[in-house]
Amino acid sequence: xxxxxxxxxxxxxxxxxxxxxxxxxxxxxxxxxxxxxxxxxxxxxxxxxxxxxxxxxxxxxxxxxxxxxxxxxxxxxxxxxxxxxxxxxxxxxxxxxxxxxxxxxxxxxxxxxxxxxxxxxxxxxxxxxxxxxxxxxxxxxxxxxxxxxxxxxxxxxxxxxxxxxxxxxxxxxxxxxxxxxxxxxxxxxxxxxxxxxxxxxxxxxxxxxxxxxxxxxxxxxxxxxxxxxxxxxxxxxxxxxxxxxxxxxxxxxxxxxxxxxxxxxxxxxxxxxxxxxxxxxxxxxxxxxxxxxxxxxxxxxxxxxxxxxxxxxxxxxxxxxxxxxxxxxxxxxxxxxxxxxxxxxxxxxxxxxxxxxxxxxxxxxxxxxxxxxxxxxxxxxxxxxxxxxxxxxxxxxxxxxxxxxxxxxxxxxxxxxxxxxxxxxxxxxxxxxxxxxxxxxxxxxxxxxxxxxxxxxxxxxxxxxxxxxxxx
Length: 472
Ligand code: ATP
Ligand code: MG
What we know:
Among the domains are: 6-151, Beta Polymerase, domain 2 (2-Layer Sandwich); 152-237, Orthogonal Bundle (Hydrophobic Seed Protein), CATH 1.10.110; 418-466, no CATH class. 52% of the residues lie in helices and 12% in strands. Helix 7 (169-181) packs antiparallel against helix 10. It has 472 residues and is an alpha+beta fold. The strands form five sheets. A seven-stranded mixed beta sheet has the order 3-4-5-2-1-8-9. Bound molecules: adenosine-5'-triphosphate (ATP) and magnesium ion. Residues 30-31, 45, 47, 120-121, 125-126, 167, 169-170 line the site of adenosine-5'-triphosphate.
């Protein structure tokens, strides 16, 4: 094909010649072909299929690259991977697969090109481009993948029920591709996902979440989140979210549908090149406490008192269940949800500088993310209200920035150290040091003294005296 970029032409030529030398046919398959035909430019992962041994072809290819690259061999799977000019090239031998009921790991036999194309998840992923001399560049498309690319449709090469039941991860992949590519899942295929949803239980959580995170990291995550909901998969993976669905009305009071609201907040936060996975998780989970705090108060309406506190406390268990990282990302998500209402309270209370300093102290460098979340959380259709709320948040952010510039609270470090206190009073480590340090911190946050050594030192002497300490 003339349209390959120079670098890909070069790679394919080496692979083609190597395959010829060991007399094994070979093809480019998978995501590269799909994305190439979609006109996407940058593609770093190449899947090479050979009718024979993948490892053998990889070894032959490596001989023709200077300097010789290291080959990663996965003997158990009969695959090999090497890196060349920033590309990851994976070699796999063609296979025919059959499945057990309780596992998504197939029994593998050597197969033909057709057998291999049949085992692939979607017609658009089952396209192959020949790298053989006799038909170099020819597209081999036994299942109508090209026309599905044009119709923006995800369709399985074989019966959907068999495809999804054999390897239920494909249900997640269908929804992930539908989200990334903004494609439709063929109706009967989607119905099959609905029928087979419980089969997802044989897939490891790590693999489910890998796909889920790709959905969350796409341009418009709500597409996938909605499909997960409609398919019934979401209530298996993350029931905390589906519980938010629904609107209740009482005495003329209505509350919003917090599930659809959440989807919109996730989309909002996913705009403007904000691509932090964990901020998207915050947006996704920011209202989960609402299902457990919902109350109707006569004459006031629906209340979700302290939902952000309840929601943030749910985070560790959810992260554990979904096998998401325990450390910093979890703490970040929990903290962000816990404080998610704080900016609104600060705005409504027309707050003092000391409250903002405390907020800066609690949030540290994450304060800007929190304001972004609050802006994304404004989903009212009333334009006037929307502008007013957004503007208030920008004004708050300006105030925060000014205070930070002056008082430097964000990366808090006490101007007086424990050593300073021990030296001043000639004492050993003891409780009183903590008391003095805390008093200094509180005084700075309250604005009674400025955040610098001299004022803090003076205050330390005073507080030390009160505690019965004597300056040496
Ligand atoms: P991307 O790399 O952009 O996520 P991809 O289509 O290349 O998309 P990979 O996971 O890299 O996806 O897989 C490469 C190819 O292997 C796919 O295009 C598909 O043909 C096949 N494949 C991967 N996983 C499965 C699966 N669970 N069932 C069937 N075929 C699969
Ligand atoms: Mg790939």
